[in-house]
Design a protein that fits this description.
The complex is a heterodimer of chains A (324) and B (611). With 324 residues, chain A is α/β, with parallel strands linked by helices. Helix content of chain A is 48%, strand content 18%. Helices cover 53% and strands 20% of the residues of chain B. The chains are: A alpha/beta (324), B alpha+beta (611). The interface between A and B is large, with 42 and 38 residues. Chain B: This is histidine kinase.
Chain lengths: 324, 611
Amino acid sequence: MKNGKKSFILIEVILAALVIVLSFVMVRGRSGKDFDKISVIIENSDDNQWSALKYGIKMAAKDQGVEVFFSSTAGDFTAGKLKNTIENELNNGADAIIVQPVSAPGIEKLLKKMEKKIPIMLVENNVEENKDSCVFSVTQADNYAMGIALAEELLKDYSGNIEGKTLGIISKSEHSEAARNRELGFKDGIKRTGARVGWSVSDFSGKEKENFLANQSKVNIVIALDDDSLTTAGEYAASNNFHGAFVYGIGNSTEAIHYLDIGILECLLVPDEFSVGYQSLTEISKRLKCYFYKMQSKMVSYDIIRREELFSKENQEILFTMSQ
Amino acid sequence: MKNKYFRRLKRLKPRGIQSTIMLAFSVISFSIMLILGTVMYIRFSALSRQEIIQSTQKLMEQTGDNLEDYLLSMRRISDAVYYNVVKENDFSSQNKDIQKGMNLLYEANRDNLRSIAIYNSYGSLIAAEPVALQKEDPDVTRQEWYKGAMNKMENMYFSTPHIQNLFYDGTYRYYWVISLSRVVEITDNRESKTGVLLVDMDYSGISRMLNQINTLNNGQYYYLCDSNGKIIYHLRQMQISDGIFSENSEVAAKYKDGVYDETFDGERRKVIVNTISYTGWKLVGVIPYSTFTDGMINMRYFIAMIMLLMAMMLVFINRVVSVRISRPILKLNDSVMEYEAGEKPEIYIGGFLEIRHLGYSIQRSYEQIDTLMKKIVLEQNERRKSELDALQSQINPHFLYNALDSITWMVEGERNDDAVFMISQLAKLFRISLSKGRTVITIKDELQHAESYMNIQKVRYKNAFSIIFDVESSIYSYCTVKLILQPILENAINYGVSSMDDCGEIKVIGREEDGIVTLSVEDNGIGMSEEEVSFLLTDSNRVPKHGSGIGLVNVNNRIQILFGKEYGISVKSEPDEGTTVSIRIPAVPYTEDNRKSLEKGYIFWQERKER
């Protein structure tokens, strides 16, 4: 009799506990799960060159079911600016951050500090010290390979003979790891060809760009190693003809495409920015979904575009991502 | 093997009626509940699935209509340009009118249009709106829309989305357009020539329309492809190009309008196809089966909640019902069990009619059994008593013969005093033996009887042994069965001390301790072996060598009939050392009531004691 009573109370208690658990699950389900919020911090965020990257991030956010916010940034990044922006995003409730790091002292320390609070994924550029320690995951194009490929395209146009040609190299920042690798790749590519680098300019900004290039000596070929440099070179070449120099470069904006389309550029290398965006966000959202997931660094591909193939099916897709 | 399972099942089988009722009710009610829940769930999920498919079909029909309207409006623009502007004017002389007409149409539809252009059969631009700088060498004859129009001279041609590669507008932008092209007849200098009229629709118009219906996050989506399965719009267009995602568009393009089941990339899904008229484009809605399942999660929770609450209620109801049914039976059972345990409770009578009847019957049966038991015990006691009385009566002739023989010898030898003493002792002995037919007498009388007997025997055996009575006077007034010492003393004489020369000693000791009276007869005679001792109280059929033949077994039986099994005789003996026979009886004060109840037997005496 007593055992029966005990069993009855036990069964009722278990059932009541199940009802409570189920109610909790139902209420939680009804109130809706909050999406993870991922902030994206890229230099000069409204710049046209980030269209494909943003599109890739947005598409991945849709696929992964996360919310994504693009932090509004203008002008060149400094360590201080980047720190403030990251802190602002943290205060705004970001669960993870995708950031394009700047090449400035103390950045790695800052990022390491932030990384303890939330997951961080680097895009476009690595921080110098991270190469060995691999604290952060990086999604970027193979910059060295792009430098080499650019040199190969140049050599192709000259049937492999550029002996005696002078080159001018433009790069936005000589300090950034990406720019250094591209330059290194390119220089390795033209090694022992007899070509000479007449000048190499970097770290230009604002209105000085035009003067900066006008003051350079005449060269046969101008190599622009990033989108900013390429559009600057294209703009200058469109108005001043660059003293007849041929322009080759790496870029990822419709402006760069336009200069290729109108014949100012000879050859354009386009990093797959859609994939940079898509893969970086996919990795970081996997990390958010599983605490123990170890984010992987990703190396994305690039495309070589010539004017005559600009509107091929494959290239139209690149243009599609840039036009979003 | 089968038996093993049956054994296990048997072990699981509940023992109590309440558990059985509860289990049976629970199994039945839970089975019904589970069946109902499952049927409900299947029914609801089928309805919900049907509803999702129907709403998707409706949405697709609506979107298809919107797309058709959009494309129709483009065709109307193309018709208007052709029939109202191109056909009505000569390009050599009325260029301005043509431009004006095209401008009007463009401005009226600029939200959906990217450009309107007319090319001649060599691919040279004749007119365009908005006026823009034409690219150096777009070579339109190699472009898909141009070739498409030329291949379909009589019809309009709709291209798939592509980058417009015709004009520079100074914004560094590249536009994603769908081209509507047709071969037109143009009049140039009164000469009729063929040309191609191009209306570039802004792709964003179509993508906006489809983006609006692609807002669900449950895995359901819609895409648009041409009749060859080439994607026109897809939510994951770039992922498909990059190989991250794949779409079964080539198969879907071959479907007629309707709902289809397919498995693609290991995923089961419903595919709804709606054809856009004129273009042959297919608007495809994809509903993965996981969407149906996800949609049913709330319903699952709801049904589970209802089932849990019902289970709680059913457990409670089952408990109440089973308790109500089983309580009278359990109470009846408890009272019967108590009865069986030796208690005398009232048999429970209550609950349902049948159980009350059962209670009455059991109670009556027990009462009858009780009465019968008492009757049997009484009869048994009477029978035994009569047997014992017969045994008791056996002493008399033998003993009387010896005593009278001794008296005769005394009278003949003129020992008159001794003869008088013998006769008076004999008289006392018979007085106590008779005791008015009572079986229970006082210990004092029993001792008197023993003393008289020993006095007679001493004369007979010429004082060959001595007798000592060491009895506490406090036990004199307790009850005892009569004539229990005499057979023991007789044995002590016959087997213990009779053969000894003047040194035989018999001692009668009486003590009381913890409500138990012990009467012991010790002798220093020849004693017995252990084997002989064990026979004394078990073998009633032994033929005695000496004496009256009333063995210790009889004495023991008589004590146990009146006082109970825990009382009786114990014997200790050592060969050549002597024998001690102890009688254990309860210390019951001698009263008339005690005597009567003891004489009925120990059951009645105990009953009286309890009362």
